[in-house]
Amino acid sequence: MPIYYENSDMRVYKTSCGPYDNNSYIVLCLNTQESLIIDAPMDPAAVLEEAEGTKVKAIIITHNHKDHLYGLEEMVSVTKAPVGVHSADTANFLSPPDFFIEDGDSIKVGNIEIKAIHTPGHTDGSTCFTVGNYLFSGDTLFPGGPGRSKSPEALASIIKSITDKLFTYPDQIEVLPGHGTTTKLGEAKRDYKIFVSKEHPNDLSGDVTWLGN
What we know:
The chain is α/β, with parallel strands linked by helices. It is built from 4 helices and 15 strands. The protein has helices spanning about 45-50, 70-80, 150-165, 185-195, and strands at about 5, 10-15, 20-30, 35-40, 55-60, 85, 100, 105-110, 110-120, 125-130, 135-140, 140, 145, 175, 185. The protein has a 7-stranded mixed sheet with strand order 1-2-3-4-5-6-7, with helices on one face. Strand 8 and strand 9 (about 110-120) form a beta hairpin. The protein starts with a strand and ends in a 17-residue tail after the last helix. The model has no long low-confidence stretch (mean pLDDT about 95).
């Protein structure tokens, strides 16, 4: 797993796991060697290898879709770390999560604090996490658009989460999503302005893109 970002205090690792192009991330405090894992896809061996030698303080889940959970039991077995998720997203867990993550919570890893942002829409409990110049967006925000929505109401909810919460952060923030490549928040804001300038059918939902719809 390559180092994705590093400064004097923190290192972030990113890897793609399993057949669904899921991303899993490690946030490591370089001063204490305490770490945190974000999401638990299938085939997490590379993540666990990189976490070896660190003290994994927690495994946090962005949302409860199974492709983000398939590797959770293996991760817990190896790391013995507690698992956290939003209280609205407890379904699909083989074992109950150890703690709940609510909007605005801070998760301390060594000298680093990771802030939780509740962003409902993709699921009721979808949660993004921010630390430094990085936003771990789960399946809420991708390069080019929002995550998949199951209904027009869910699309409205995810767009509200993006515009009211995520878009309050600076343009230079790097968005690290639950699948695929990264983007800058400023690029997402510019593309959204084009999306919102156009008319859309009332029943719009599903796989929506800022520039394609």
